[in-house]
Design brief:
Elements (H helix, E strand, L loop, with lengths): L2 E2 L11 E7 L8 E7 L7 E11 L1 H8 L6 H4 L12 E9 L11 E5 L9 E5 L4 E2 L6 H5 L2 H13 L7 E5 L4 H12 L3 E6 L4 H7 L3 E4 L15 E6 L6 H6 L1 E9 L11 H10 L4 E5 L6 H12 L7 E6 L3 H9 L6 E5 L2
Parallel strand pairs: 9-10, 9-12, 10-11, 12-13, 13-14, 15-16
Antiparallel strand pairs: 1-5, 2-3, 4-5, 4-7, 4-16, 5-6, 6-8
Helix pairs in contact: 4-5
Length: about 350
């Protein structure tokens, strides 16, 4: 039997809730405000009252169904999961019968899956949930899961450690701002490419060398060939051979994202990387996954002020479509968060 009682300072969920839905693929204009039934948690799920929801590029890709390849997994003609929002900080209001370790009223954060966060209530798999301490706000917590987790896994894939020289391409976005901070925290020498307006920011986050990406690219004299232990490519536009040429022997390029066509998206670039990679100068496509041990670490680092999620803009729930539009337009600096409380 599902436990469902009032949490301190909140009420038992009503039968319906406001949510932002899309009934077809497209731009932000296809996302509309509507009412949905409050979901019922399964045996191993939690129902949370959403406090904040982080928005990132993955939400926009699913909104648009771009590239078409993603539609094979998420719905051919329309998305099966109609509500966007993967990164959720919320308060537990109901607990599935198979859940242990969490109770009504707990404050949690998680990457909940392919969507559901842009609603008053959302299902959070208990296996993905991490406690949110009182000194980490819901907005900061909601900025962590996908972007922060991707940054950690990219640095791990490149074996970045103290003394490594790391180039972060696309350093001003959600993943990039975490990558710069976490690499610097590991004791790496960080170089960064970002938009001109974000150069001071990435330098403040720990980049010892920061360049405007419109003037400096792999192959430019400012980036010495054969001098980097790791290249974390988040922008996904530079030729793979140019990236590989930046590496020292034993170095690794990690591809976090990539440009591509409407059909396959970055898959062509990822496949090319497999053929170009070699033992002394590797190229590794990254498929980041939700890992609670990483999210726990990120929450702790945030609580200690060892890292700080960069939130460019916070939107109220009734302007969630504007938040999606802002991310969809590209060039957001850091994270975009929607507050639901």
């Amino acid at each position: 039997m599902t436990e469902n009682v009032s949490a301190p300072g909140s009420s038992t969920p009503a039968t319906t809730m406001p949510a932002w839905l899309q009934h077809s693929y497209g731009g932000p204009e296809v996302v509309v405000s509507d009412q949905l039934p409050v979901p019922t948690p399964g045996a191993t799920d939690l129902l949370v009252r959403v406090r904040a929801c982080g928005i990132h590029a993955g939400d926009v890709r699913l909104m648009r169904g771009d590239p078409y390849l993603v539609r094979l997994a998420f719905g051919i003609r329309r998305p099966r999961a109609r509500t966007r929002g993967m990164d959720v900080a919320g308060t537990v209001v109901a607990v599935g019968p198979g859940v242990t370790g969490f109770r009504i009223g707990d404050e949690l954060v998680a990457e909940i899956g392919v969507g559901g966060g842009l609603a008053e209530y959302a299902i959070m798999p208990a296996a993905r949930a991490v406690a949110r301490p009182a000194d980490v706000s819901a907005q900061l917590a909601a900025a962590l899961p996908v972007s922060g987790g991707t940054a950690v896994q990219a640095l791990d894939a490149a074996h970045v450690a103290s003394g490594s020289r790391v180039l972060v391409i696309g350093a001003a976005g959600g993943v990039g701002t975490f990558t710069v901070q976490l690499a610097a925290q590991r004791g790496a020498e960080v170089w960064a490419l970002a938009g001109e307006r974000a150069l001071d920011l990435v330098a403040d986050l720990g980049a010892g060398h920061a360049f405007d990406y419109t003037r400096v690219q792999p192959g430019s004299p400012e980036l010495p060939a054969g001098s980097f232990d790791a290249v974390i490519d988040i922008a996904g536009t530079a030729p793979l051979t140019e990236l590989q040429g930046l590496l020292r022997d034993g170095g690794t390029v990690v591809l976090v994202s990539g440009a591509g066509g409407k059909i396959l998206g970055p898959m062509g670039r990822m496949l090319a990387a497999v053929f170009l990679s070699r033992r002394r100068r590797r190229i590794r496509p990254l498929a980041a996954a939700a890992k609670t041990e990483i999210l726990t670490q990120l929450v702790e680092l945030t609580a200690q002020s060892s890292i700080r999620p960069v939130i460019e803009q916070t939107y109220p729930f009734d302007a969630a479509r504007d938040a999606l539009a802002h991310v969809d337009a590209g060039h957001a600096v850091g994270k975009v968060v929607v507050t639901v409380e």
